[in-house]
Amino acid sequence: MIGPEGEQLGVMTPSKGLEVALQSGLDLVEVAPGTQPPVCRVMDFSKYKYDQERKEREAKKHQKAVHLKEIRFKPHIEEHDYQTKLQHLIEFLKKGDKVKVALIYRGREMSHQELGRRIIDRLIADSASAGQMEKPPVLEGRMIIMVVAPK
Q: What dotted CATH number matches 68-150?
């Protein structure tokens, strides 16, 4: 048994422990039930729960959530449009977000997949300074999908 100030009170029966807790106006909490004999502590349980919740909220405040952004390309993209989308990709990576790059084939563009492959290869080379490939490019249906993560 551990007292309210952290001092050792020794081994005692559960009824004696409850009596000690009631005299001090606090709760008797089982801290380590698996040990022999079980360890109990006299404490204000509601205050303890409040402190634990506050610590969890503080820890949650300092976490950064990683978002997954998506950028879509087409095989016949003009140079300026490509540069604009590349700049957005680099911005997302610098903010710490992952980016899902999707190259979409429409209609007869599927018969010229090498055009899309060239765009993806160029994108990998141009974004190498800001990020690294997490999932390599894979053709899924009419889309080539890859995921780029920040360095």
A: 3.30.110.10
